[in-house]
Structures are given as structure tokens and as C-alpha cells.
User: Fold this.
Amino acid sequence: MNFIQKHLLVVDDNPVNVELMLDLLDDHGFENVTGLSDPRQVLAHCERQLPALILLDIRMPHLDGYMVIEQLQQRFCSQTPPVIVLTAQIDHSTRRRALEMGVRDFLTKPFQHDEVLQRIRNTLRIENRYHERDQQAETLEHIVAKRTQALDEQTRTDPITELPNRHGLNRKLNEIRLANTGAGVLFLALDGYDDVIRLHGYPIAEKLLHHLGKRLQETLDKRHVLGIWGGSELLVISPSSIQGELPALAAQLLSCFDHDQEVEGFLLPLGARIGISAAEGIFDSERLVQMAALSLPNSPHIRVQCHSENLEARQRRHLHLQQAIRHAAERNELSLVFQPKLTLNSKRVIGAEALLRWEHPELGQISPGVFIPLTEASGDILAIGNWVLENAMSQAVAWRRDGVLDGEFNIAVNVAARQLSRKDFADQVLQRLERYRLPARFISLEVTESGLMSDINHARQQLAKLAEAGIAVAIDDFGTGHSSLAYLKTLPVSTLKIDRAFVMDLEKSPADRRLAEVITQLAHGYNCEVVAEGIEEDAQADLLLGMGCEIGQGFLYSRPLPAEEFVAWCDTWQAERIISVTESLDGPRPA
Assistant:
């Protein structure tokens, strides 16, 4: 290994020694050697040009060799050049002190030329190895740092869209939080993305998400950060916390959904809803995102909604109710009430609809319109639906034992779409009937149009098995959903129910009267009877009877009643009906 180009510095207060060492090194090819006789000049020289090796005398005026080493170590620290001590003293204390200061070797005076050259070469060789090792360590450290940075970037980046993922978004939010400048968050939920996955598969869905990410990013300026929060949820972080600016930004984003997304030759429909939250100054990042997520609109008619305390209170109430309903049956908070069904011509009670009620110990009566959708969304409707069927059949058994049920009286039970989607639903209903030894005619089922259409083929199979066993099936709320002749022709349905929405304005609305007439005619065309819900006035009942509607229910006759009150009502109604019929035959009684 050639060290002749290395810069060497010789320091000795005796100029003769310096010249001898310079001549020796020059004779052996060293080309870059400097000699100094004044130790006070060493530091300045090293600052101009740091030598690869210093040959340093220990005993010198003004500054001895130890002091020179201390100066260099204070100035250059780990970069201090290696030192070979030149000394005529070889006592133990001198060696020990020099070695403690990091001296590499010793050259004793008078110098032996071969020994001097070998010790210099050895020291330079060792220092070169140290230097190479340091360079390798520095290179490795640089590679590791770069790789670590790349891995860290990967952990913060969504691989499909190359946008920040949840980890990256949280880091950005924390940066803004520490800056104490406030921020706004737009929580964007994609509607229809799951349909794309089902219809076209994940490769197309991923390309759609990548395409959409680019479109949304082009809509935003550099101040905003767009990222992927979940599978079909995106987040936009805005440096602005001004409420007026954030809805405008949301409208800007929603404009990207005005047209179908073109991906791989497909035109893919996709919708979006946006919840907005904002905070000034220092904020809780997790809380800010949560407020935006809570603000997501649930209505199809609202696309943007800002967070407010009232909104969050409603959302938290819904969450509380959703959790509370899960074990409501076990706590005996659920009950059934029964609303009578009557023939419109003779006013004879022929059945009842079993309706679910929930009495919360703290919140009181909870409307079915509130808690039923919550149970359907959470899946708890399956357990609650089983509870309703079980209790309705149990009540039917009790009424049959007490002689309340005659041959044509039946209890109608509402069935949710999730119940109907179970492959064993019909079998479970029939097994319950067998266990209770209850004839099928005493129970009927009511399903909504939307429940049927969620899986029409499966619904057809389940209902056919029930109808074959003698269980009547009614379509509830007819006229509010698809109202398609196609499915009516293929389903074993015995009854259509006119929704109360068309009954309440029957007297004033020609359109509602016409629709009720069409439903009645349609039902009769398929050999179905018609039940009208929500009858509250005699005039409504008369109009429906004139159209050919056979059965009615509503507050005109009775509100939904607990089982015992229902029986008492039936007794009273029957007695009044007999009196009414007698009077109509014999004429009015004398006053």
C-alpha cells in the first residue's frame, strides 16, 4: 500500500531534528511533508491542512507535546490526527501518559532510519484501515438510514393509490397540532365501491380507487393533504379551520362524482358523502377525525354535513340505543302489542298484527321507527326477530287455549329482510309451529317489498315452503317500493297491504285514491285480498270499502294493545257489534 502522498507533519523544537526527519522521509519518497519548530503553530497548520500523521516531540518550550495533543483533541475531537511521539526519554511515566492520551507509537532519539520508516508505515496502514472501516460504517449507516426512510415511507403510504394511509394522515395531523394553527378534516365515504368489487372484482376496484385519488388530488391545492383512511373512506386534511371554507371545499370534491368514473373501458357509478369537523389551536387528532366521521350524512338527500354538538348528541344516542337493544329481551324490556284487523263491511275482528315495543328503563318508550333500523344495520334484528316469532306463537297458543282464536283469526308477524335471507328461516318457523303444536293458519307473515327484492330468488324459495305449509304471506307497505308485477306473478303472496301514507290523505288526494284503487284491483287480479293500514276516519274506511278493500286496521278501531287489553277490547267490540247489528235489523230502540 503506497502512503507517499499522505500529508505528514514533523514537530520538534530542534530545527536540526526536523531537517533530519524531513530528509529521511524525502529520501524514501514521501512527497507531502511539513516541518515545524514552534509548537504554537501546530493548531493553525492543522486547521489549514489536517495531516494524516503527526511526528511530535514531547519536550518543547512554550507548549509541550501533551499540550499540543490536548489542543488538537479539543479542536478536532474524533478527527484528531494520529500521533507518533519523538522523545529521548523512554521512562514508564512518559509512555503511560502518552498512551493515555491516544498516542499511536514512539520513536526514540537518536533515530534508527529503518525503524522510523517501518513505524510510520505501520501507523499509516492501521489508520488507513480505521479510515476504511469508518467509511464503510458511514456508507452502511447511510444505506440503513435511506432504507429506513423508504420503509417508513411505505408504512405511511397506501400501496394502491400512493396516497398517505391512516398512519401517514395521523402523522400529518400531529404535525399540524403541534404547530398550534388549527385544522379542518373532511371525512369522505364512497357509496357504491362495494358494488364495484362484487361486480368487477378487486383489480378493477383498485384501479378505480387509484383513478379517483388522482382526480381528487388534482382538485385540491398543495395546502391540503388527501389520504386513504379505510377501504372506501378517504380523508382530507385542511390547514383552514374556517367553517365557511370547508363546505366549499367539500362541494369541490363532490364535483368529481357528478359523472361516472371511466376505468378500463367501464363507466363506474360512484357516490360520496362528506362529514366535516374543524378545530382551532391545539386539538386532539383522533377526536377531530371522529367528529368528522360522526358527521357523515345518513340520508341519501344530504351529501355534506358539518359537525355540531346536537348532531353528535343524536349520534351518540343512536349508538347508545344500538348497544342497549342488544340485550333488551334478556332484561325483559321488549313486549308485543296487537292491533286488530277488521273486515270493512261487517266490522268483524279476524286477526291482529303483532307489533314490537321497547321500554328503556331510563329513556322510556323508544319508537320502532328509531330502534328497528338500528337493529337491522347491526344484525341484531335476527335475534329480535326470533324473539318476536317465539312470543307471537306463544301468545297464539294461549289465546287458542282460552278460546279467543276462532278458525279464521290469525296473528301477523313482521319479518325483516335479514331474517328472510337466512337459508333456514322457513324451516325454523315450521319447527316452532310443530313445537307449539300450532296450526299454520293461526300465524301469517308480513314482509316489505324492499325485503323481498334484496334477494328475490331466495325469498321466493323460503316463502314457497311457508305457503305450502299453510302460512299466509302479506306484502307490507305495498306501493312504497318496487310494486312490480313481475315478482307478484312468481311469489306465493295472499295479501297486499296499502301503506298508511296513501290512506291518510285519501279524501283530499285524487292521486292517493287512484293509487289505492289500482293496488286493490292489482291484488284482486292475483287473487290476493287487500288490507289498508292507518285508517283513522270513517270516511277513509267508506272509500276503501267502495274500492273493494276487504280488511282495515288503524286508530279508528283501536291503537295497538297489550295482550290482556286486546282481549278485553275484542269482547267489548263484539258486544257493541251485536247490538249494532240487532238495531239495524229491528230499528232503533225507543228513547
